[in-house]
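WARN retry 2 of 3 for item q-0093 after timeout on previous attempt; input resubmitted unchanged.
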Amino acid sequence: MDVSSFTIAALATAPAAGAVGILRLSGPDALDVGRMLAPGVPAQPTPRHAYLAAFVDAEGRALDEGLFLYFRAPQSFTGEDVVELQAHGSPRLLRLLLARALEDSRVRHAAPGEFTRRAFLNGRMDLTRAEAVADLVAADSEAAVRAAAAGLSGVLSARVQALETPLRALHADMEGVLSFPDEAEGADADVAERVATLRGQAEALLAEAGRGRLVRRGARVALFGPVNAGKSTLFNRLVGESRALVDDEPGTTRDVLEARAEWDGLAVTLFDTAGLREAPGRIEALGIARTRELLAGVDLAVLVLPPGGTEAEAEAWLREAGDTPVLTVDGKCDVADARGLSRRRVSGLTGEGVDALRADMLGLLWGGGTPSAVALVSERHADALRRAAEALKSAEQASRVSTLEVVSGEVGLALEALGEVSGTVVSEALLDAIFQRFCIGK
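OK item q-0093 returned
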């Protein structure tokens, strides 16, 4: 039996005491089962109308009084008949109502994300919008909330479709020439130009995907540099509270400290690292080793130099960061002049230059625009978009030196990759992996 023939049930609110708790039903028997729990509701309730109803147990004894809402297929979230019972938010009461619904043989408990999965399978939303539902639930910063909302409204979907539609037309033209060369003569005359244009669009979309990934997971920024440069004082100032110990003795920070902040809506995790110096103590040496490991995995490193640090010294410290982007500043500007150097001067103690430093950091992290202006992008999306861009790059190269069959093959690979984002090319295993991360009841 097709699993969609079952009606599914789950609690749509958190399992904790609250003002309101919601039991959600979706499927062909949702109305019958809902009326079993709320027998006072009319046999043919008005869709999208809230009924005040008594919720009863198997013996007909009242358990609670709340609202009964019916959404008739296909005008519902899932595209199926949906019923929601809005009761008082007692976890025990809600479990009783759910257990009563599951006693019906036509009903089973919903799997994680199954309501949204049914919405996707029934054509109520594409895969990018379906995933944005989970992103919105999990969003932990203002930028993530706004970006998830943009994804839910179809921003990412529209961008992908704007590339997928002309790409599909190009692929169809090339396949037509290959299959029917006489009838489709001349249809491949501008293949090279079309491929080049689409490649540019794919790379622009991939660049935006990088910003969407940054919003999803938040930015990671490490302060590093020599000992006694003012890193911990600056760290505390950036975080907005005293998280790191501060002392005049060099090497106070022995391990990596971590704190979270939110700047212009973007979640930022800051790391205060052990100062780097020659011949440290054994414990301090372990902290330095962790610093070097951390620098390889952050989005941005801020090199904090002590008063009087020279350009030659700065170059030596920059090598510690490897390929990680670095912003260099002179710390402790409240106790010494910068000796004519052009680097930004900051003081964690007085706050001088800190707001400008924060703006510089956001500029380097974001590269222009605002974090809320994009849709969130998962690692899965980013990988698929990368493969699409690489396939189109290969297609552009092949259009100059190889056959039309090769070009068409690469364009086909790009289409498959984009289809993984939009959901036009998707396997059951992939759907399982995507919706497994959803909460039950969504």
